[in-house]
UniProtKB/TrEMBL annotation:
Signal peptide: none
Lineage: Bacteria, Bacillati, Actinomycetota, Actinomycetes, Kitasatosporales
InterPro entries in UniProt: Bact_HTH_transcr_reg, Tscrpt_reg_HTH_GntR, WH-like_DNA-bd_sf, WH_DNA-bd_sf
PROSITE patterns tied to this protein: HTH_GNTR
Protein name in UniProt: Winged helix-turn-helix domain-containing protein
Domain HTH gntR-type: 20-94
Keyword entries, A-Z: DNA-binding, Transcription, Transcription regulation
Organism, scientific name: Streptomyces prasinosporus
One Pfam family, short name: GntR
Keyword Transcription: yes
Tagged with keyword DNA-binding: yes
SMART domains in the record: HTH_GNTR
């Protein structure tokens, strides 16, 4: 069962209405979640057993429902399982929690590049993340420049062993993290929250001596005070402005 779907906590024997065949009713409910974005495009669905428990039906009924959705192009299945295939833009994390730090305010005319590698993190990253010195981890690098080529921002993020163990989407990057290909990790914080982690951000801003630049260091911990990631962003304070946005969720 993927930990990053709305069905992470499966409800006992969900009751479906009467009328049409049972597998069609299951397919209709799944389709409703796909259309509302509860399961974003590309997001993995829970396994057949978990879906059967959630809807209170047999696994064969779930198979028939998924087959119906596949025929209509709404669900795709590969060796990793089934996932949502509705066209559209995946649901994003709130602007306040955009990853990597500083990327959201880069501007429409900015040239940006991001890569990910499995390597020893930069100096100063291992200890805050609880990593053994010299131990490799997932490292994300971000770079942006103005259309004229003037460098505006560089950011490097190292992830902890906890983040890689808890967040399936991040762990999958290990096998393809060669530092050359493009990396699409903008939903990292969304993945973390979907994995059941509460995110606590601490951002520190310091001037870099004898330069017009500043360094923003972000440390993210979960609800158990376990480190998840550390990001260092360097930006030209004379040419650029860093904007922080915060969203407080409504009480439930």
């Amino acid at each position: 069962m993927a930990r990053t779907t709305p069905h992470q906590h499966v409800h006992p024997r969900r009751t479906l209405g009467d009328g049409e065949p049972l597998y069609r009713r299951v397919a209709a409910e799944l389709l409703g979640e796909l259309r509302t974005g509860a399961v974003p495009p590309g997001e993995r669905l829970p396994g057949e057993r978990q879906l059967a428990e959630y809807f209170g039906v047999s696994r064969e009924t779930v198979r028939q429902a998924l087959q119906l959705l596949r025929r209509e192009g709404l669900v795709a299945t590969d060796r990793r399982g089934s996932h949502a295939a509705l066209p559209g833009v995946p649901v994003e994390a709130p602007a306040a929690a955009g990853f990597p730090l500083g990327a959201r305010q880069a501007g429409r005319d900015t040239v940006a590049r991001a890569t990910v590698a499995w390597e020893v993190p930069p100096p100063g990253h291992a200890e805050p993340l609880g990593l053994t010195p010299g131990r490799p981890t997932l490292v994300h690098r971000y770079w942006s420049a103005s259309p004229g080529g003037r460098e505006r921002r560089t950011a490097v993020t190292s992830f902890s062993a906890v983040a890689l163990a808890e967040v399936e989407e991040l762990a999958r990057y290990r096998d393809r993290a060669d530092g050359t290909g493009a990396a699409e990790l903008r939903r990292t914080y969304d993945w973390m929250r979907r994995a059941g982690l509460s995110l606590h951000h601490r951002d520190t801003i310091t001037r870099i001596a004898s330069t017009p630049s500043v360094r923003v260091t972000r440390q993210v911990h979960d609800q158990h005070a376990r480190p998840l990631e550390l990001t260092e962003l360097v930006m030209d304070a004379q040419q650029d402005v860093l904007v922080y946005e915060f969203m407080v969720p409504a009480a439930v």
